Amino acid sequence: MIDNIDVLKDRADVFKQLVDQQSQVASTSFCMRAPPAIRWSWLLPHRYDAKEYVRTDLPVDDSYISTLGIHLADGRNFSKNLLSDTNS
After folding, report:
1. Domain boundary assignment for the chain
2. For residue 42, with 0-12 CB atoms within 10 Å meaning exposed, 13-18 middle and 19 or more buried, which class applies?
3. Which residues pair with 56 in a beta bridge?
4. How far is CA 71 from CA 2, 6, 50, 61, 66, in A?
5. Residue 34's closest CA among 67, 77, 75?
């Protein structure tokens, strides 16, 4: 795990490729926080009912789910190859 990966700026993808080339590395992923340290949460009112919901963000890349071995019960992972996902 590397803290402050944002200091690499536009070289982050090159760094990730170099790490991926190491024989000891099975998979890599970018994530803004080490799991389960999620820091961004908002209490949002729902527009159709009076309930409030907690929204929590954990910015990750498209290889996060597979790198951590997470199984999705339903749906699919995001893909950087789909315009609808890259604009989400």
Report:
1. 5-86
2. exposed
3. 41
4. 24, 28, 33, 16, 8
5. 67
Say how many residues make up the chain. Answer: 88
CA distance 40 to 55: 8
pTM of the model: 0.62
pLDDT value, residue 88: 56
Report yes or no: 53 and 44 within 8 Å, Cβ to Cβ.
yes
What letter represents residue 25's amino acid? V
Which pLDDT score, from 0 to 100, does residue 30 have?
A: 82
Rounded CA gap, 46 and 63, in Å?
31
Per-residue pLDDT band for 25 (boundaries 50, 70, 90) equals: very high
Q: How far apart are CA 64 and CA 33, in angstroms?
A: 12
Place of tokens 């699919």: 76
Q: What is the mean pLDDT of residues 3-24?
A: 86
